[in-house]
Specification:
With 481 residues, the chain is an alpha/beta fold. The chain has helices spanning 26-45, 48-64, 66-77, 81-104, 138-143, 146-152, 166-176, 179-182, 192-201, 211-224, 246-256, 278-289, 311-325, 377-385, 399-406, 474-480, and strands at residues 2-3, 6-10, 17-21, 109-111, 117-125, 128-132, 155-159, 185-187, 204-208, 228-231, 236-240, 268-274, 329-332, 337-339, 342-344, 348-351, 368-374, 392-396, 413-416, 441-442, 456-464. The protein binds NADPH dihydro-nicotinamide-adenine-dinucleotide phosphate (NDP).
Length: 481
């Protein structure tokens, strides 16, 4: 709600609007883009060692403000444990990406297949990267692309979601303590119009959010002819193969579908089980999810936080009602609960689901685990691939069979005998690259050492060390006639 130019922010535990902020105007974005662009050449020229030292100072400043940051993110998301994870990753990313940068940004001179010609790879950072991030992990997702972009030598402006903005005040104070970084990294406040202004003024966009908004952002970036990396929604499947360790699968999926109250792009949102294993797996899964309690009233006790974004409750309710109306059986949970002014979704397990139900085809973004039995592995693969999305997946079973199944799935980040591993390896220089498939996004990998090079324009500097005429010169061509 906007009152006198200020945007009100709802506390997900109380339902009260207990914070508000004045959004930036689109003209502020233009002015900030100019300022950052002017500062970027010095940041690039200062060299990688300076940039690493500055980001180390940033990491230390984040640690000094840890308590305020934690409080802000906990208040906006209503979650304690996940906030601790978010807070920890920023420091890990600074360390990991610094190693990657040292290994990958050094230009290499290599011979070519043509005698006398050598090629030197040049990297020229995009001057200004615009990051637009969602509400589900506000701190981590604001920094996930910003840190490698800064190390690459870019300036960065970040537009987090208006739904979870309290941490921006703290980030401003953190940046005040690292002036070298503040010259090239700033946060903006506002809603979609400010996001659109970021797309209009940046040289490269990293967008994390819904597929619907991602399409608009990509179209706007396309019209401007700038690269746009989109990491969007998902309807991530898990397949249990014959011979899978059902106990391990139940534990992993009870976690992988409910972390962040299921408000996670990498959440498993549908499970396919061999028909003969359905009853045994259901029993094990119900035992596991039975251990997961709402973290109410004490945020430090329990596992499942409130829904951060109130309209999500309507989506969950609609999907559950549709499933039940079409014959699904609810084994636990099944309805949004109201506690203390907040909206809560208890962990919900369903069977008797089909792909005619929204709960199996649309992103639900809640701690919901629908289980569907299958007859053959080919059927399971076809069902998993029957989606407009392709973000991540999980396969449980003997390793060789699981990898072979994973290779047939339309998804970028696939966990074997676990769920949601890929985001944990961000900045790990040994992990493979991955892209989002289909409606889950477009653009280069966020994972793997070459992810850093997304922020660089590449130059091929080709030196001819021969002294004679080149084969493509007229004088040589004439001689050949
Ligand atoms: P949205 O797409 O609604 O919003 C994402 C960001 O875009 C917000 O900052 C939003 O601002 C901004 N925005 C809105 N309209 C525009 C516009 N026209 N131009 C530019 N920016 C705009 O996503 P949610 O915040 O609802 O996040 C949840 C979604 O994010 C889920 O679908 C989830 O799967 C996905 N996600 C994907 C991840 C991945 O790595 N693939 C990771 C995490 C989440 P504001 O909110 O202020 O309106």
């Amino acid at each position: 709600m906007t009152i006198q130019g200020r945007i009100g922010v709802r506390n997900p535990r109380t339902g009260e609007q207990d914070y508000s902020f004045t959004p930036n105007l689109p003209e502020d974005v233009v002015a900030l883009a100019d300022e950052l662009r002017r500062a970027q050449p010095a940041w690039q020229a200062a060299g990688l060692q300076h940039r690493i030292a500055t980001l180390n100072a940033f990491r230390d400043a984040l640690a000094r403000h840890a308590s305020a940051l934690r409080h802000a993110v906990e208040t906006d998301t209503g979650r304690v444990f996940e906030t601790a994870i978010e807070q920890g990753v920023a420091a890990v990313w600074v360390d990991r990406w610094a190693h990657v940068a040292l290994e990958t940004l050094e230009p290499e001179i290599t011979a070519t297949e043509t005698p006398g010609l050598v090629s030197k790879a040049g990297f020229s950072p995009y001057p200004l990267v615009g990051v637009i991030s969602p509400w589900n992990f506000p701190l981590a997702l604001s920094l996930m692309d910003a840190i490698p972009a800064l190390l690459a030598g870019c300036a960065v402006m970040i537009k987090p979601s208006e739904v979870t903005p309290r941490f921006i005040d703290v980030m401003d104070r953190v940046l005040d303590e690292v002036p070298d970084l503040r010259r090239v990294l700033r946060y903006l406040r506002g809603a979609g119009d400010i996001g659109a202004a970021v797309v209009e003024t940046s040289d490269l966009i990293c967008f994390t959010g819904s597929t619907a908004t991602g399409r608009k952002v990509a179209a706007q970036a396309g019209a401007r002819f700038i690269p746009c990396f989109t990491e969007l929604g998902g309807k991530d499947p898990a397949i249990l193969l014959p011979g899978a360790d059902l106990t391990r699968a139940a534990k992993a999926l009870a976690n992988g579908a409910t972390l962040g109250s299921g408000q996670q792009c990498y959440s498993i949102e549908r499970i396919y089980v061999p028909r003969g294993d359905e009853a045994a797996f259901l029993k094990l899964l119900l035992a596991e999810v039975g251990k997961l309690k709402l973290s109410y009233p004490d945020p430090k006790i329990g596992d499942i936080g409130p829904l951060t974004f109130a309209p999500q409750a309507e989506v969950i309710t609609r999907h559950l009602a549709d499933a039940v109306a079409k014959g699904a059986t609810v084994h636990c949970g099944g309805a949004i609960e109201h506690h203390g002014g907040g909206l809560w979704c208890p962990v919900t397990v369903l069977t008797g689901v089909t792909h005619d139900m929204q709960i199996m085809t649309e992103e639900t973004f809640g701690p919901i685990l629908p289980i569907m039995a299958y007859d053959t592995v080919d059927d399971a693969i076809a069902l998993a691939n029957d989606s407009t999305y392709g973000l991540s997946a999980a396969v449980f079973g003997p390793e060789e069979a699981a990898i072979s199944t994973a290779q047939q799935l339309c998804a970028g980040g696939i966990s074997v005998n676990d769920a949601g591993i890929a985001p944990m390896l961000m900045g790990d220089r040994l992990v493979a690259e991955k892209t989002a498939f289909r409606g889950s996004g477009l653009g280069g990998s966020r994972l793997g050492r070459d992810a850093l090079k997304r922020f660089m324009r590449k130059q091929a500097i080709i030196v001819n060390r021969n002294t004679g005429a080149s084969p493509w010169w007229f004088e040589t061509l004439r001689t050949e006639d």
